[in-house]
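Hi W.,

Here's what went into the run:
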Amino acid sequence: LCHIRGEIFHMSDTLNQALKQVQANILLSTTQAGTGHVTSSLSAAHIMTALFFTNFKFNQNDPHDLRNDRLIFSKGHASPLYFSLYRACGLITQDELMTFRKFGSRIEGHPSSAFPFCECLTGSLGQGVSIAVGEAIALKKQGSNARVYCLLGDSELAEGSCYEAFNSAVYNNLDNLIYIVDFNRLGQRGVTQLEHNTELLSKRLASFGLEVFKLENGNNLNECLNTLHYLEFSTSAKPKVIIAKTRKGYGVSFLDDQEGFHGKALNKEDCNKALKELGSVDMKAIFQTLQLEREELSKTNLPFKRQYPDDNKKTFQSFVWQSSLANLSTRQAYGAYLDSLVHKNPSLMVLDAEMSNSTYTDIVSKNHPANFLEMFIAEQNMISVATGLAKLRYVPFCSTFAAFLSRAYDQIRMAQYADCCLNIAGSHCGISIGPDGPSQMALEDIAMFRSLHNSWIFYPCDSVSTCKIIDLMAQRSFKEAGINYLRLTRDKGQDVYTNEQIFKVGGSNLLTQWQDITVLTAGITVFEALEVNKILPITVIDMYSIKPLDLDRLEEVSSKCKQVIVLEDHHQEGGLYEAIMATKKLQIPVYSMSVDKLPKSGSKEDVMRYCKIDKDGLLEMITRIY
Amino acid sequence: LCHIRGEIFHMSDTLNQALKQVQANILLSTTQAGTGHVTSSLSAAHIMTALFFTNFKFNQNDPHDLRNDRLIFSKGHASPLYFSLYRACGLITQDELMTFRKFGSRIEGHPSSAFPFCECLTGSLGQGVSIAVGEAIALKKQGSNARVYCLLGDSELAEGSCYEAFNSAVYNNLDNLIYIVDFNRLGQRGVTQLEHNTELLSKRLASFGLEVFKLENGNNLNECLNTLHYLEFSTSAKPKVIIAKTRKGYGVSFLDDQEGFHGKALNKEDCNKALKELGSVDMKAIFQTLQLEREELSKTNLPFKRQYPDDNKKTFQSFVWQSSLANLSTRQAYGAYLDSLVHKNPSLMVLDAEMSNSTYTDIVSKNHPANFLEMFIAEQNMISVATGLAKLRYVPFCSTFAAFLSRAYDQIRMAQYADCCLNIAGSHCGISIGPDGPSQMALEDIAMFRSLHNSWIFYPCDSVSTCKIIDLMAQRSFKEAGINYLRLTRDKGQDVYTNEQIFKVGGSNLLTQWQDITVLTAGITVFEALEVNKILPITVIDMYSIKPLDLDRLEEVSSKCKQVIVLEDHHQEGGLYEAIMATKKLQIPVYSMSVDKLPKSGSKEDVMRYCKIDKDGLLEMITRIY
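Here's what came out:
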């Protein structure tokens, strides 16, 4: 790639012009919007302009071209810089750039999927660092030589999830992943903990196994170009990081290295003062030259083997039921069934946070290692890596204990906005896990996932329903964006259903005759209700689809029964009872039975009895309301 | 402390006996329970026994003695080791130890507050590492010379939050904090990413600023004692870490360094085989000797200056309203009012995740730096540090953007079980923040906090209510355990109330005359409803206390009105509407107006109009149902 250096020297005047335009547009777009992060954009303007017009390659006509390098601004608040770069290469008009942060614009406050070349929404720091790992893995698996470039800030390095990502990048030998740290010394409210200690940061990042490139003056275009040039000669299998020592607000004298300007747009007067300092700026011509050169580059220098999992996109292969799946626990069924699905659907990727012998995804890791990613105990990174994979059209299934998914709630929350589909399984839910005690008991997970836009939640009680629901989740992944959550139980298995049973999104199953009292429940408590039914006839309905709910069924219950009990191994708030009450479909008395005290260690039976969500508790409630 | 070395040599036979007893009890307690983590306990038995009976000092008669060193098992699954140590010093009887993991026992699956010497529940990895930081800060602030010892695993080092904690420990110069890494090479399902690379791990931890002590054979009692001895000579202000290279299952030949035994108790036969390998074990005599020696130590070697914030415990000083607080935004009121409270209540600690110029806690940082902790952008660590502070009787108030509290949901979840009180403020909630876009918009925060046991949630609309509610939260902190959440808005302030208004936990305020249609709302949408009331008379009720709810008020609404609209800047699921519906108090039609589509960047007005939670949307709804 030596010719790039040739280009660089040839281009350096033009690049200087591009830089000036980018700097000017950072100022103009934010002042026009009256909001935005000027200084955080200016600090990284040099290195990112240099990168964007040299090493970074992409097909300007097709954001989905697999040969495209990917650009992720994990410090998403540098959006004025991000959009100014795409303005400079002609993909955004000057008029559109001036709609920055206006309602309905593609040029949002943080780069988002509204702009087609954006990989996904960032703005919650640290997450782009992990999404980049997912995309780099996906590109390698697809045989693309493309790279992922990810810009992050130094304040951002306080987020622990960054170090999860670095570990993961190194473990997966992602030599196609290049991080750029905009090391500008200042955070939102003052000096960062690292200050400007390049030496310490270098040692730290090297100790995670990254190949470190130090860029002592990140606000000098030639030094930036040199570092990017050296990068091309790296032959190590390590992911790389450029530590670019920069100054926040560089390029405008009264912003340069000053505190107190984070996230503030200049008023018109100050903006004009700043623009004057930049001198004359060519607002049009620059990109045209560069665009042409770039297209030449992309034609000649990208050997490429197409292996897009997209090929499976419309042909999801459902697995056929096998008797070996009968009477497995729901978590065993999860691993075993995924293993079969992966066999027929190579775009499925199974991720697990060092729990694969508990979630039974170790079956996949043994039989289909290429479709399994060991994520170690780093749940945040697991979810964002899955987002990265999904953005490049893999179908991720992530698993760990349901309780520990709370560790990644911010990442899951952000996945709402990523315009892709994630499948997430939480095993060992509820108090029924028993001896391990409260730290391992998920009692908030349904609330967590229900509160997300466009989420589906399933809570199967047996092996048959688990397998059939996984099918529903996988099918959605091939069609639309959304977050699918599967709640799994630790307890041993016992099939309620035969393979003929139909399961659907927004479905439920009547498990008994109709009686005056109906118990609406799901998962492990289905068995408690069925036990009670042996003593005292009640209607038991398996509400396996918690979101969306079976509204027709609720109307049916309302017309056929006199009283309803909602029984669940979850806190009341945000759980099945509240979901049902929100529908306003039940016109008869409804009672809630849920976990309403702090649980303890103990046997499953003891703990369920203590919290009164077992058969005895249910019987007591029925006797009371009868 | 040189005499300790003298003691060591004197004690080494006894220590050997203690170690044997600890090893035996790890086996016995787990086999008896039929569950538990044998191998993860055995690996750390040597270093922890050595520590427990030499450097570690505490008053066996009083877990609350401020002179006590603190012992945190962040790898909480090594609970068999933890409890066996306390067994060896006589604080647990042999009989009680055999109730491990039984329902009702103090000897729970993971060490928990049920056992009085336990700092707090662990079991979600990485969190003890941060709680230790909080306790070390608290001890220093209180003038105690005591230390915090924290055991963590190598698998655990995959959790990013560990690195947040290390940063925080170094930033706060916690030379009284000693981490011990049980570097046993094996995780739950196989080899860890670090394998046994002591060199790499040393470099990594040193690069965060920790003083590293390498212990090459952590399963050799003498080497353990030597390392602990050297530790005593450290004069640096750095937090310390011992990297103890160990073998999982060490001490039992068929478990030693073997995969496949994580979290598995031995059956009786294997247990007997293992015990035989240990040879003769004295199950009684050991601790008596050691206990005596320890008491001597604690009497002679702990200079101590008592400055317990406990002194404020029952005398919370509420602040008097000042006109300077009038018409502040709720977030401004938060900072300004806390500043006044801190002045009168020195046990208040204000923590902020590098957002203090947005949450206005920078006022506290300037005026009362001793009561302010800069936590940088590391929300997970912030919450667990707050837990540590609260365990040593400080009253923490944590703040950041509400959206980013989702980053710490696991830590907040675990705080339910920590038997202490946390105050958490989330600013910039909801879509009304506008231009920054969806990544910064908290739309799940009410659901998140509602679903916790014993949580309170407040959502004030103006400065007066914010200040008065902070009083309610602080008062609770001085009395009982719980999690208090305060939802704050970005928008400018406009007082609805005068200082005479009364606010209470589970209260609400009627802001208009009674009409047929009632709008139940809180926070920013109160103003939208009041605007509508100017055009079309409606009842507007400020439901500032979202949990607990004002049930009497709901009954009153039900009797006085014909229809109800619940209006909120939050997703419907888990929010105010569902909270209200769950009460079953409203016997009249109820309509929900909430954020039910993906928001975008834009002005506050544009985004609220788009999601139809503004006055126009409300007017449209009223016209429709009228």
